[in-house]
Each structure stands twice: as C-alpha cells, then as structure tokens.
C-alpha cells in the first residue's frame, strides 16, 4: 500500500511539474523539485527535464544548469531532451559559452545531437554576437538536419557581425538545398548588406 501511495504521489508531482513547464512557471517547477526531495520522492529524468524546460522558456539559464548539477548528484542520467532544454535556456539568455559547454558535454556523454541542439547553440552564438562560431556550428549541423531555423539563425549571426558575403551565400544555399526561406533570413541578409554598405546587393 505504501508503494502504491508513493507511485500516486510521484504521478501527481510529475503532472504538476509538466503543467508548470507548459505555462513557463519555472519557480513553481523548482519548488516542486525541492518538495519531492524533502518528502523523499524519487525524481526521474522526465521530471528533471520538464523543470529544465520551464527554466529555458523563461531564459533562466543558471537555474537550468543547477538542475543539471542536481541530476548528477542524485545519479539521474541526462538525455537529449534534458540537454536541449538546458541549451535552449542558454540560447534565450545569449549565454553562448555555456551553450557550447553543454554541446561538448553531450559528446562526452555519447548522446547524439540533433537539429534542435544545433539550432539552439547557433541561436546562442547569434545573440552573443559570435558569428564565426555560429558558422562553425552550422557546418557541424550538416551531420543532422539543417532547416529554416538553422539557416535563419546563422544568417542573423552574420548580419550582426556585418558579414554580408557569408549571409548572401547562406541565403543562396537555402535555395540550393531546398530549405524553405522566410522573412527572417531575407531581412537578416539585407541588414548585413546595409551595415557593410553593400547597397546594390541589398536591393
């Protein structure tokens, strides 16, 4: 009977943490994690990942990283969902170095990186003004699947760095590899040309 009650309690906590994640209520998610620890309820990778995701939506990258540390201390293995959520948290806050550390940690943990991983890292570099790192990540993303978000993010990174030629090449490449372009990609490429005073290319 006791085990049954514990199972029910865990299910209830999981449902509430999931709801908090969907609502972006990161403080609620963290409080629930602490409550579970206090009442000695086992926390699994799903609950931890949902909490990291809640932090990610709010750009609370430091809180997300603390949760990863907690997972290590209680020997709960991280998965691709956990890492992607944490990298997204870093991306929202423009913390490109922290995002790259997590990117490297995935390789060490032998977790296969996907397009979400690469896109989030490129976005972090774009916000951090590191266009050259974004381009390197873009090349690595060819091993997974480059999509509209991938191209738009790296073109935006080039625009911020006044790198008009790479921006135009990437815009052309989108057509070549049949990736659907969007207004973000076009506007970023135009912005790169304007910043570099390459007016004829922006027309």
Automatic annotation (TrEMBL):
InterPro entries, A to Z: PPR_rpt (IPR002885), TPR-like_helical_dom_sf (IPR011990)
PPR repeats: 44-78, 79-113, 147-181
Record bears the keyword S-adenosyl-L-methionine: no
Pfam families with a match to the protein in the record: PPR, PPR_2, PPR_3
Keyword field: Repeat
Annotated PROSITE patterns: PPR (PS51375)
Keyword flag Repeat: yes
Entry-linked PANTHER family: PENTATRICOPEPTIDE REPEAT-CONTAINING PROTEIN GUN1, CHLOROPLASTIC, PPR_LONG DOMAIN-CONTAINING PROTEIN
Name of protein: Pentatricopeptide repeat-containing protein, chloroplastic
Organism of this sequence: Polarella glacialis (Dinoflagellate)
């Amino acid at each position: 009977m006791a085990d049954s009650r514990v199972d029910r309690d865990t299910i209830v906590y999981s449902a509430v943490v999931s709801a908090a994640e969907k609502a972006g209520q990161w403080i609620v998610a963290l409080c629930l994690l602490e409550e579970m620890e206090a009442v000695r309820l086992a926390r699994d990778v799903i609950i931890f990942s949902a909490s990291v995701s809640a932090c990610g939506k709010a750009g609370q990258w430091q809180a997300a990283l603390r949760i990863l540390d907690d997972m290590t201390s209680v020997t709960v293995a991280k998965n691709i969902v956990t890492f992607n959520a944490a990298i997204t948290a870093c991306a929202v806050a423009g913390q490109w170095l922290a995002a790259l550390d997590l990117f490297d940690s995935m390789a060490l943990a032998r977790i296969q990186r996907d397009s979400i991983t690469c896109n989030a890292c490129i976005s972090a570099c774009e916000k951090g003004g590191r266009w050259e790192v974004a381009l390197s990540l873009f090349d690595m993303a060819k091993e997974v699947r480059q999509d509209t978000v991938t191209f738009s993010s790296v073109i935006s990174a080039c625009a911020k760095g006044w790198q008009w030629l790479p921006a135009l090449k990437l815009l052309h490449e989108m057509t070549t590899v049949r990736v659907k372009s969007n207004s973000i990609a076009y506007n970023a490429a135009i912005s790169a040309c304007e910043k570099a005073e390459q007016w004829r290319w922006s027309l």
